[in-house]
Design goal:
It contains five helices and no strands. It is mostly helical and 170 residues long. It has one domain: Ferritin (Up-down Bundle), CATH 1.20.1260.
């Protein structure tokens, strides 16, 4: 059983996960406009992952006897000055999400909601990967700063990313 406070927090997280997908679609659009289709692909895959994360929260809430509620989404940032800015903004966003996941875990533990804490463990680990992925791209983009050939090589690397849906149930 979910307390009203935990249920509200989990429902709010659904909107944050779906917003993340929306943000990464905006980043994909930026890259597509710049003819960096590999990076556009990378962000498209990232968006699909975030939507899957939202679905995991949705299913957990319903399975735990709560009711998932769809809340409004904010408008994402749509304009960027460089690929590096995109990934730095993405890392900043993932750090924000990490803070929210950690706060959810703290709340679940405070309420001794073991099922919620176990479900959230997957997200805690996932956030380590998310931040690492963005940090890695930032390092690579800094290495090739000002070198168009290097940027195109990174774009080709990003094109290889594919969406692999993880199990939807925690």
């Amino acid at each position: 059983m979910l307390s009203p406070k935990l249920l509200d927090a989990l429902n709010d997280q659904i909107s944050k996960e779906f917003f993340s997908g929306y943000l990464y679609k905006a980043m994909a659009a930026y890259f597509a406009d710049e003819d960096l289709t590999g990076f556009a692909n990378w962000m498209h895959v990232q968006a699909l992952e975030e939507l899957t994360h939202g679905e995991r929260f949705f299913r957990f809430i319903n399975d735990a006897g709560g009711r998932a509620v769809m809340l409004p989404l904010d408008t994402p940032k749509n304009d960027f000055n460089s690929p590096l800015e995109v990934f730095e903004y993405g890392l900043e966003h993932e750090r924000f999400v990490t803070g929210r996941i950690n706060a959810l875990m703290d709340l679940a533990r405070k309420e001794s909601n073991h099922a919620a804490a176990i479900a959230l463990e997957w997200f805690v680990t996932e956030q380590v990967e998310e931040e690492s992925n963005f940090s890695s791209w930032i390092k690579k983009l800094k290495m090739v700063a000002g070198d168009g050939r290097g940027l195109l090589m990174l774009d080709q690397e990003a094109a290889g990313r594919v969406f692999s849906p993880t199990a939807l149930t925690p």
